[in-house]
RNA sequence: GGAGGCUUCGCCUAGUCUGGUCUAUGGCGCCGCACUGCUAAUGCGGUUUGGGGUUACCCCCCAUCCCGGGUUCAAAUCCCGGAGCCUCCGCCA
């Protein structure tokens, strides 16, 4: 949720942000008026309550006829308070509803427009020239005996898979390498719950536009996380953190579950787009004034990981319309996928400023000792999808795959993966 | 699945049976001041969080005793529902 103080003082800035996202500007005015109505209702209820309290105390002290007279008046007031409180409850609910509908303020410099209006910030590495017919990652994976889509479908349905043998080992190696880098950088390693309560899922902002993407367990009133970001954001909910020593950084290892609703026909082959995958996610809590710098650091650590797998990639600054509700800015790193002749997202780092933390009530104490809302950020260190880029970019004519240097220690020193 | 206990302003804790200066007690910690010719001891004062009013500051009001309802003029306290933690029984990876 955005800060209401900002909204009151600079409504035009919020409108401009909505425009940049291609979102509804009238939501801003709806929120403004809901805020005003609520404050009016709160004032009225507060005043009546104050009056009632003084009467109530007199009743306690009085006796006999005086008491009876006071009771009559007190009962009248009680009814008025009840009505005023009902009005306040309603105004509160309306404000919250309007508040939830407004996405985070877009940061300065974010390109306007939608999905295709990203700005490419840089290219790293050059796509390799192949002097043999390129195989896609599924062909390679099957040759190596590393991916079994057919049995994935048999057991669980479309967009499910088994990583088998060397495929499973390769993923473990990759994720371990990611976790190792995070630990060396000072992150706290975390293995997180996959099921979360509604208020946590709600707090991260995933139940807005992305709601259809999220698996929900109705029987138990819980949600399956689409990323460990959810659990890590909830980890410090309702807490006041000590950020004196700098940001709190966590690296979460989890399976991620996504319904992929509305993606029918897209990426149906292989493990590019699946319902379940594994991921190492970085998550930072920091002071709002440090958030931009922290965002750059997260991006830097993503690039460090990408360098280790030796694939060409580009960095994009996501356009406003393609940002999630919680994000003020987002950088994606997209790796070259030779079989598609295209760049595909491998990492994504978002600066959520205080938007998530406000709803989850994560705070820290400033120099004056006053509690303030913290900023949260997240970024990817490794996912199952990375196997696609690794296998395709490092494939050899016979279907073998050269193992990038940095990954070898995590695969018992193996330099090449060969077809079975 | 069943039974019981617990949850108070950073931590610990009194208060709940018997509703009303509870404007929530005390200790620890922390902050400030005083004193003492050295960071110790002692004394005094302060120390939940959120919202509203006013806004330079001060201040005032309301809410907040796990959460949500209810009873009542009045709820930390009584009633109902829920969550979390702990213990025991049953069952089972």
What does the model show?
This protein is α+β, with helices and mostly antiparallel strands and 420 residues long. It has two domains: 98 residues, Orthogonal Bundle (Helix Hairpins); 303 residues, Bira Bifunctional Protein, Domain 2 (BirA Bifunctional Protein, domain 2), CATH 3.30.930.10. The chain has an eight-stranded mixed beta sheet. Strands 5-7-6 form a three-stranded antiparallel beta sheet. Helix 2 packs across helix 3, helix 3 packs antiparallel against helix 4 and helix 5 crosses helix 12. The chain is elongated, with a radius of gyration of 27 Å. It binds one RNA strand of 93 nucleotides through helix 3 and helix 4.
N-to-C SSE series? HHHHEHEHEHEEHEEHEEEHEEEHEEEHEE
Radius of gyration: 27 Å
What do we call the CATH topology of the largest domain?
A: BirA Bifunctional Protein, domain 2
Estimated structural class: alpha+beta
């Amino acid at each position: 949720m955005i800060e209401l103080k900002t909204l009151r003082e600079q409504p035009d800035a919020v409108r401009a942000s909505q425009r940049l996202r291609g979102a509804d500007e009238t939501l801003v005015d709806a929120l403004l008026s809901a805020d005003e109505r609520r404050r009016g209702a709160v004032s009225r209820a507060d005043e009546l309550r104050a009056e009632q309290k003084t009467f109530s105390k007199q009743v306690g002290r009085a006796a006999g006829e005086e008491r009876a007279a006071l009771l009559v008046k007190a009962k009248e007031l009680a009814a008025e308070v009840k009505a005023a409180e009902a009005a306040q409850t309603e105004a509160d609910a309306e404000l919250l509803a309007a508040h939830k509908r407004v996405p985070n303020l877009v940061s300065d410099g974010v390109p306007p427009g939608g999905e295709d209006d990203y700005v490419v910030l840089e290219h790293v590495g050059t796509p390799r020239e192949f002097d043999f017919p390129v195989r896609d990652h599924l062909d390679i994976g099957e040759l190596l005996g590393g991916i079994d889509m057919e049995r994935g479908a048999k057991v669980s349905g479309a967009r499910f898979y088994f990583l088998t043998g060397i495929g499973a080992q390769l993923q473990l190696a990759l994720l371990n390498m990611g976790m190792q880098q995070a630990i060396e950088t000072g992150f706290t390693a975390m293995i997180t719950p996959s099921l979360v309560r509604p208020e946590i899922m709600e707090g991260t902002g995933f139940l807005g536009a992305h709601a259809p993407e999220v698996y929900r367990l109705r029987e138990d009133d819980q949600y399956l996380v689409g990323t460990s970001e959810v659990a890590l954001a909830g980890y410090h909910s309702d807490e006041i953190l000590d950020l004196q020593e700098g940001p709190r950084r966590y690296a979460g290892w989890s399976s991620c579950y996504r319904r992929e609703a509305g993606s029918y026909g897209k990426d149906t082959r292989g493990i590019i787009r699946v319902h379940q995958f594994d991921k190492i996610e970085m998550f930072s809590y920091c002071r709002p004034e440090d958030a931009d710098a922290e965002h750059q650091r997260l991006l830097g650590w993503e690039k460090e990981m990408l360098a280790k797998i030796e694939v060409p990639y580009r960095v994009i600054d996501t356009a406003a319309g393609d940002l999630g509700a919680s994000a003020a800015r987002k950088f994606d790193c997209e790796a070259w996928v030779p079989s598609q002749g295209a760049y595909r997202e491998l990492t994504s780092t978002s600066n959520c400023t205080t938007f998530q933390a406000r709803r989850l009530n994560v705070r820290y104490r400033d120099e004056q000792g006053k509690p303030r809302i913290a900023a949260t950020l997240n970024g990817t260190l490794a996912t199952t999808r990375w196997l696609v880029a690794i296998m395709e970019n490092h494939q050899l004519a016979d279907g073998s795959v050269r193992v990038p240097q940095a990954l070898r220690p995590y695969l018992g020193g193996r330099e090449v993966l060969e077809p079975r």
